[in-house]
Design brief:
Helicase, Ruva Protein, domain 3, 9 strands, alpha/beta
């Protein structure tokens, strides 16, 4: 008997016809290695495995693992863990590898940020040791509103922390839109599949941690002018926010959501 979806884990399982569409969109190759986030009953896992070299499936639900293990082929490894607690480097997956997953709605943003951190670590390791990059891309099923934030452009209501931090490290596109009926049980919202193809940062940064801290601070006050939104960040660093904006050539009366990546990088460098 198949295990039932658990509401507390935000589980919604992909129907077969939609799983086929997602795998087709992934365009898996025989040499690909995949990390799958939350395989559940294996809708993607069992379709990916015959087409790729290896799948490492990370699942937090022991009941799902017990149901899935007897059905998986030899090129699938199942890791019983919360993805947010997993150090991808410790899994010793030969690079490069790809990521796919049907993300629980309640933790989709933390998983996105975890992937970005893992990508930064892999990129630094590649630079030090001459290794190929760890992650090449991530194809993720998320709530449609999350996809809108990932893909948002400057000046739009959805543009913010997620848009900026993802776009800093990846080229993004929406590859599928899914109705509630694509899952069981059907959620109350629509979903989308987005592709993140990782690359070096889109803009040069002196201090990426300062950049991220600046972005998170000013977007907690996105309706304020930049002069006011930047004040807590500047004060914490004993700096004059108005002077930093002037040095970066940015009008202090603008709103945070109007800033492009290059402008945010220029402003963050005034504090680095």
């Amino acid at each position: 008997m198949k295990p039932r979806a658990k509401k507390k884990l935000g589980q919604h399982f992909l129907e077969s016809v939609w799983a086929e569409k997602v795998v087709t969109a992934l365009n898996p190759q025989p040499t690909d290695r995949f990390v799958e986030i939350g395989p559940g009953p294996g809708a993607l896992t069992l379709r990916l495995a015959p087409r790729v070299a290896h799948v490492t499936a990370i699942e937090v639900d022991a009941d799902m693992i017990a149901a899935l293990r007897p059905r998986i082929p030899g090129n699938v490894s199942v890791v019983h863990a919360d993805f947010l607690d997993v150090d991808l480097q410790s899994l010793a997956i030969p690079p490069p590898f790809r990521v796919a997953g049907n993300l629980p709605y309640n933790v989709s943003s933390p998983i996105l940020f975890a992937l970005l951190r893992a990508n930064r670590i892999a990129t630094r390791a590649a630079g030090i040791h001459g290794l190929p990059d760890g992650m090449t891309d991530a194809t993720l099923m998320v709530q449609r509103e999350v996809a809108d934030r990932i893909l948002a452009e400057p000046g739009s209501k959805d543009y913010g922390v997620v848009s900026i931090l993802v776009r800093l490290h990846a080229d993004v596109r929406r590859i599928l839109s899914l109705p509630p009926g694509a899952f069981r049980p059907a959620p109350k919202v629509h979903s989308a599949v987005v592709s993140l193809r990782f690359r070096p940062p889109a803009v040069p940064l002196t201090d990426e941690q300062a950049f991220e801290a600046l972005v998170r601070t000013i977007f907690t006050q996105r309706r304020k002018t930049l002069l006011n939104a930047i004040r807590p960040f500047a004060t914490a660093r004993n700096r004059d926010g108005g002077r930093a904006l002037a040095d970066a050539g940015i009008d202090p009366s603008r709103r945070p959501e109007t800033l492009h990546l290059a402008e945010l990088a220029r402003l963050a460098d005034r504090f680095a």
